[in-house]
Amino acid sequence: MAFGDSTDDAALRAAWREFCDQLRAAGDQVFKDHNPATPLQRADAFRFLTQNLGQAFDLALETKDPRYPVLHAFCTPLRKLGGDAADFTYRQAWIDGDCVYRITGNTGTARFLNFTVQGPRPETQPGTGWPSLHEPFGDIPEANLFKHQIETAPDGSFELHLGGEQRGQNWLPTTPGTRKLFIRQGFDRWDET
User: Fold this and answer.
1) From edge to edge, which strands make up the β-sheet containing 101-106?
2) Which domain holds residue 40?
3) 2 contacts 13 by C-beta, under 8 angstroms
4) d(C-alpha 7, C-alpha 30), whole Å
5) What is the reported pTM?
6) Is 71 found in the same domain as 138?
7) Are residues 96 and 173 in the same domain?
8) Helix axes 9-28 and 39-57, enclosed angle (nearest 10)
């Protein structure tokens, strides 16, 4: 099979080349005047760029089907955002505010645990006029549930519902614009789960 065998070949090639051009331009940001000029720091900047590229693929393509949500750890020791805390884990799942979801889990030893449903993402940040952060950030928190609010079994296990009719204490309401579940956990020691 060669170029032109598919009716979409020209559009796919053009999109791929545009993506590569944008990636090339992003790489040029490593050499901005205010960025450190040591070889190690330059290499680390390219590493950070490729980490963000991997995160973008995971968040925008691989896990973005709200019919089959995936609790995706988008910050890990190998993929950093530059503002994430070393003592926290961050997970998200793309959801549909018109659907109902059930999550089962265990609160474990996390000192801090928060479930947040978010959406919709505005063009500007409320009250500022500033443009919203790039995808997948900038969504507006709609409802939160913290560890101390979660009803658990004696062993810490729980069941949480998102959307639909209220189901007791372990429920987060959604709106038609809800598009994301965001989960943060904070730990005192790195050997905790």
Assistant:
1) 101-106, 157-162, 171-172
2) 9-62
3) no
4) 38
5) 0.82
6) yes
7) yes
8) 150
Whether residue 86 is found in the same domain as residue 162 = yes
State residue 131's pLDDT score. 81
Question: Same domain, yes or no, for 42 and 93?
Answer: no
Name, in order, each residue with C-beta under 8 angstroms of 176's C-beta and a sequence gap of 6 or more.
97, 98
Can you tell me the distance from the alpha carbon of 155 to that of 179, in angstroms, rounded to the nearest whole number? Answer: 31
The answer to whether 164 and 102 are in contact (CB under 8 A) is: no
Assess whether 139 and 182 both reside in one domain. yes
DSSP 6-48: STTHHHHHHHHHHHHHHHHHHHHGGG-TTS--SHHHHHHHHHH
Give the SS3 label for residue 143.
strand
Same structural domain, 14 and 56: yes
Question: Which H helix or E strand runs over 144?
Answer: strand 141-146
Give the span between the Cα atoms of 190 and 141, in whole angstroms. Answer: 28
- Whether 136 shows a pLDDT value over 70: the answer reads no
Residues 148-171 have pLDDT tens digits of: 999 999 999 999 999 999 999 999
